[in-house]
Amino acid sequence: MRHRKKFNHLGRKSAHRKAMLANMASSLILHKRIKTTVAKAKALRMYVEPLITKTKELSTVEERTHAQRTVFASLKDKYAVKELFGDVAEKVADRPGGYTRILKLGNRLGDNAEMCLIELVDYNENMLETKKSSSAGKRTRRGRRKSTADNAVAAEAPAQNETTQEQVSDSTDAESKE
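and the corresponding structure tokens:
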């Protein structure tokens, strides 16, 4: 029974899985977006988000050095650690979590595996621009109450339509009787 076994083993032994996740996390940090399967992306999200969280709220040099060394123990790539504690840490400083986004792409042709893009949220300029423009002119779709003058005009218009429909039906009845 698989009780209390949360994470996906991805069909690999533990050493292979750890190396693969470390390499994918390094690629994600360096390139800001990678294409992979949905299962690997979900496993990568569980792996990389705690590493990104370790870059926040470091007040002293000792705390920063300790955090860099613990992240390096997981990533094993000094360029990725430098990028993570430099540019990425500045962008995610005010975000309370949820640093990655998974965008599904469809199925792969060869084996029909579900493919997706996993990306760092603060680095997708297209979505950031649309979010800013949509929040600036946000409108609701529900109807608003109209003024009393508009209601009076609207009430008269259906009454006129009903009388014309009655006249049309009377004239058609008269024609059918003839």
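(Above: one complete record from the training split.) Residues 33 and 68 are 22 Å apart (CA to CA).
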